[in-house]
Structure formats: structure tokens, C-alpha cells
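W.,

You were right to be curious about this one. When I first looked at the sequence I had no strong expectations either way, so I just let the prediction run and decided to look at it fresh. Below is the sequence, 210 residues in total, followed by the output.
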Amino acid sequence: MRIILVLAVLGLIVAPSSARGPIIDRARAKRAAAAKPTAEVRPPTSAQIAAAKKQGKVNVTLETTKGKVELQLDGKAAPIAVANFLNLVKAGFYSGMPFHRVEPGFVIQAGDPALVQRPPVGYTIPDEKSPMKHTKGTIAMARSYRAGQMIPNSASTQFYVTLADTPHLDRIGFTAFGKVMSGMSVVEKIAVGDKIVKANVAGKAGGKGK
């Protein structure tokens, strides 16, 4: 099976062409797993998951070194992923986090704690059968990759935003949980090393931000 690209310096491993998808560097993940989990972050509780589902759409703002990106998360489509992402945002987990993977015409990816000398959160979340499709500007959870296969239920903190329609990611089973509502031009300018300066929960979609 042909490997498209390996960037050892960046710790970036791109999946084989037959299973191309947003993945987590297994070597770095293994090293990070030996560290103590982040105490401030816990898996989403059943109450938080139920609240995300009930609330439905909620807005999150990513302030990046290239500009502002407004996301709209859909808790009815993927309540576990949304509750998890909101927990991480509220805990400040993504502040200072770099985008470590950028593939033009495919995805940008961030959320690796090892790149900011932070321990892993120590948990994963299950995949969800989200009705959302991987169209351009979709935000979804990255998963681990091993021996030519994506590992189910291995999402944790890394996420990606699509730069084009990527229907093959629906077939592979990645959990899409939101869309870029504004700032797609900013997303398209992101390069490896650009950072999320700060992430904020802006409020329920359609209402006033907090």
C-alpha cells in the first residue's frame, strides 16, 4: 500500500490513498499517553451530552493568528462530539494550539496536546452516525490510524476542517459535528504552525452571543 507523504519533522503522517482521512500520529500519541492526563478535562457526562442534544446548534469562535473563524456546532447531529468539544473550549484546551496538518484542497487539523507540551486528556469518545455530510467547511473529529485502517472510537481532542467536499470521509465513518459559518477565507489561509489564539463559546445559534 502506497504512502502518500511522511513529514517526520512535523510529526505528520498522511494516510494511504485507499484510506485517506484525518489521522492522529500514533508514535506521538504513544509517547503522550505515558504522561499524566489533563486534570481539568473530563469526558462529557450524560447530562452534558443530553444538554448538547437539547440545545441543538451553538456557535463557537476560533480566534486564530490568521483571523476569526465562526463555527456552528450541531448537538442534535452529534451530541457526544459537541459536548466534548465544548468542554475542551471552556477549559481553554485549544488556546495556543497550533494547526499541525494542512493539506490544500483537503483539510486543516489541530488539537494535538503534545505540540504544546500538554498531557493527553486520557480518554476517547465513541463515533456517532451524524447526518451531517462532509461538505466544504465541515468540522469533524480526527481518529487514530493503524496498519492500514482507521481505528473506530479513537477520537479525543484533534479535529479538522474540510477545505473541499470530501464524501469519502462520510463513508469511512468520521463524525462531522459542525460547519464554518463565517471566516472560510481565514481557514483557507491557515498554514502549518498557525495557532488558535483563543476559542470561545459564543452562544446559541440565532441568539445573542455571551
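Here's what jumped out at me. The CA atoms of residues 4 and 176 lie 24 Å apart. And, maybe more interesting for your project: The chain is about 20% helix and 30% strand.

Coffee later to discuss?

I.
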